């Protein structure tokens, strides 16, 4: 059952590659909330493809 | 503007590293690139394609309170318009400050006309927008 607009998103963590500092990091929704930041999750099919 | 972007695909963080180094279109990327190889996060948001293991083109805007405020999902062959994403983000930022207002469909930026829904507007939206 996937989430619907208007519902609360459960906290999650995501391993990331952060090109700004060239290393691996983590995106943490709980931390975003703590820092008062909006988040935009942008899903796409695959690296090395087009569009 | 107070929003952190993170892109997500089912590639691992190592593929993201390789792609960002290879593809010149990505040379100026400043956002974090998230790895969802199990597809769990894509499944949470309803964009995981079963049997294929890839994510649809979905954008999800989450407020600082952790609420999902907007979802836009395109099929694989069509890109999302970043101007529209930006417009929706600005509308959300504005409306968080003005909980009694609504942004009509032509709203583009702060300063544009908004609506203050109430009983007097019932059946009179045309007049309200023309003001």
Can you walk me through this structure?
The complex is a heterodimer of chains A (51) and B (131). Chain A is mainly β and 51 residues long. In chain A, 12% of the residues lie in helices and 35% in strands. A two-stranded antiparallel sheet of chain A has the order 1-2. Chain A is flat, with a radius of gyration of 14 Å. With 131 residues, chain B is α+β, with helices and mostly antiparallel strands. Chain B has a single domain, classed as 3-Layer(aba) Sandwich (Glutaredoxin), CATH 3.40.30.10. In chain B, the strands form three sheets. A two-stranded parallel ribbon of chain B has the order 1-2. In chain B, strand 3 (48-49) and strand 4 form a beta hairpin. The model of chain B has no long low-confidence stretch (mean pLDDT 93). Chains A and B meet through strand 1, strand 2, helix 1 and strand 3 of A and strand 1, helix 1, strand 2, helix 2 and strand 4 of B. Strand 1 of chain A pairs antiparallel with strand 2 (32-35) of chain B.
Give a brief rundown of this model.
Chain A is mainly β and 51 residues long. Chain A has one helix and three strands.
Cα-atom radius of gyration of chain A:
14 Å
How would you describe the shape of chain A? flat
Radius of gyration of chain B: 19 Å
- Low-pLDDT segments, ≥5 res of chain A: none
Largest sheet of chain A: 2 strands, antiparallel
Helix fraction of chain A, binned, reads: 10-25%
């Amino acid at each position: 059952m996937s989430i619907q607009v208007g519902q609360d998103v459960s906290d999650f963590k995501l391993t990331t590659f952060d090109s700004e500092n060239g290393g691996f990091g983590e995106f943490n929704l709980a931390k975003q909330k703590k820092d008062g930041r909006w988040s935009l999750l942008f899903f796409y099919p695959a690296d090395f493809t087009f569009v | 503007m107070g929003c952190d972007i993170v892109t997500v695909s089912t590639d691992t963080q190592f593929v993201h590293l390789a792609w960002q180094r290879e593809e010149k279109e990505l040379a100026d990327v400043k956002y974090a690139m998230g790895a969802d190889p199990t597809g769990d996060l894509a499944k949470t948001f309803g964009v995981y394609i079963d049997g294929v293991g890839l994510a649809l083109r979905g954008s999800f805007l989450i407020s600082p309170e952790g609420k999902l405020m907007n979802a836009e999902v395109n099929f694989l062959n069509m890109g999302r318009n970043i101007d529209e994403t930006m417009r929706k983000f600005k509308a959300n930022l504005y409306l968080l400050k003005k909980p009694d207002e609504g942004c009509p469909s032509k709203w583009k930026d702060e300063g544009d006309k908004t609506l203050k829904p109430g009983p007097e507007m019932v059946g009179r939206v045309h007049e309200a927008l023309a003001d």
